[in-house]
Design goal:
Alpha-Beta Plaits, six-stranded antiparallel sheet, 11 helices, 18 strands, Zinc-reg_GTPase_activator, CobW/HypB/UreG_nucleotide-bd, CobW/HypB/UreG nucleotide-binding domain-containing protein, P-loop_NTPase
Length: 388
């Protein structure tokens, strides 16, 4: 029998911790003697996650331009490209879908299992619960900063999961973790729950046990594509790159956290909720990553570079922002913020490759569900499969 690649996809809302989780999982699979490839996904090119994972030494392919569901053929060809680029095909492919995407069991997991069973052995689909936003959405509380249509996406992500991962347990008191798990059991009963910390690795042995399971794609929730599309379109996307030139020596990590910190303040003034802000800085062969995952959360340096941009030296900042707001306003805020942060340390910045937009309506290549009656995904294009 020909070599089958284990396909492991980990989903979750924007800022849930997918990239950190995949990086840690990749290291654990390697420690087990398995070769690993990674596929990232975004609505546009220039993804911080890709740069971060490549900086950790992994072979990474990027599927850009739309979610995996709408770029299914590109997903398969990207995995095949990773398989052909090395001395031998990888044992495991780790895949990170766009954080605003759902319906991935029907549009990715099941098509892989039914159409490409000879190539792929598909793992259970795990979805990371983002504690702050998810607890408010599942608890029907006010104040997430997102509209009900955007909240609908987060809930549907959890409903289709084979397992739900409660992340950031290192940051939460025990009673809050207990309350989150009880909330999941009440709102989405019957799901295995894994308590974990992508940062420290706590709970990852249990996560690997879940991912080694044999049941995948067991649930395809009913989904209203009109609500889904409108919820996604309420989010503003920004991807861009800044070339930084330093007159004097500048600490790269301090610059990254200042950029994200200034953006946090600028978004608060506009009453824009941050789903996720990410900045990776590359200088002198090293890289650092700074993040913000909610408007009321802290700016974190998830990957310190411990690098200094020397006097007369340069650095590259790759910037991603996912925000509930207007994309053109978001781009203006990012430009103002980057220039101000650089000027504060005597540096200059030139921004390039900027994209600011709202995601378009999802139009999946395939859609395979339990329900023989199509829902509002009647927008599924000619040639796509709607099977039971």
């Amino acid at each position: 029998m020909s070599h089958r690649i284990r396909y492991v996809m980990v989903g979750g809302f924007l800022g849930a911790g997918k990239t950190t989780t995949l990086g840690r999982l990749a290291a654990m699979y390697r420690d087990r003697g398995q070769s690993v490839g990674i596929v990232t996904n975004d609505q546009a090119e220039g993804l911080v996650d890709t740069a971060s994972l490549r900086g950790q030494g992994y072979d990474v392919g990027e599927v850009a331009g739309a979610c995996f569901c709408c770029q299914f053929d590109n997903l398969v060809s990207t995995v095949r490209g990773l398989a052909e680029s090395g001395a031998a095909p990888p044992d495991v492919i780790l895949a990170e879908p766009v954080g605003s995407c759902t319906d991935l069991v029907a549009t990715v997991i099941r098509p892989l299992k039914e159409l490409f069973a000879a190539e792929f052995d598909v793992a259970p689909y795990a979805v990371i619960l983002k504690p702050g936003h998810a607890s408010k959405v599942l608890g029907n509380e006010a104040g997430t900063g997102f509209s009900p249509k955007a909240e609908y996406i987060l809930r549907k992500q959890l409903e289709e999961a084979d397992a739900i991962l409660v992340n950031r347990i290192d940051e939460l008191p025990g009673e809050q973790i207990d309350a989150l798990e009880a909330l999941v059991e009440r709102e989405i009963p019957g799901k295995p729950v894994v308590r974990m910390s992508a940062k420290t690795g706590e709970g990852f042995d249990r996560l690997l046990e879940v991912l080694d399971g044999t049941t995948s794609g067991s649930v395809t929730p009913n989904l209203d594509y009109d609500i889904y599309a409108e919820g996604e379109a309420e989010l503003a996307w920004y991807n861009g790159t800044a070339d930084v030139a330093a007159a004097d020596a500048v600490g790269l990590d301090a610059l990254l956290t200042d950029v994200i910190g200034r953006m946090k303040e600028a978004l608060a003034e506009k009453n824009y909720e941050a789903a996720h802000l990410k900045a990776v800085g590359v200088s002198d062969g090293g890289f650092g990553v700074a993040n913000l995952v909610s408007g009321d959360g802290p700016v974190t340096l998830s990957a310190p570079s411990d690098r200094t941009i020397p006097a007369g030296g340069t650095a590259e900042l790759i910037l991603n922002a996912r925000v509930a707001g207007d994309p053109q306003v978001l781009q203006g805020l990012m430009n103002t913020t980057v220039h101000a942060a650089c000027e504060a340390v005597g540096a200059t910045a030139a921004l390039r490759d900027e994209r600011a937009f709202r995601p378009g309506r999802p139009v999946p290549t395939h859609r395979m569900t339990d329900d023989p009656t199509p829902t509002a995904a009647a927008s599924t294009p000619a040639g796509a499969s709607l099977t039971t």
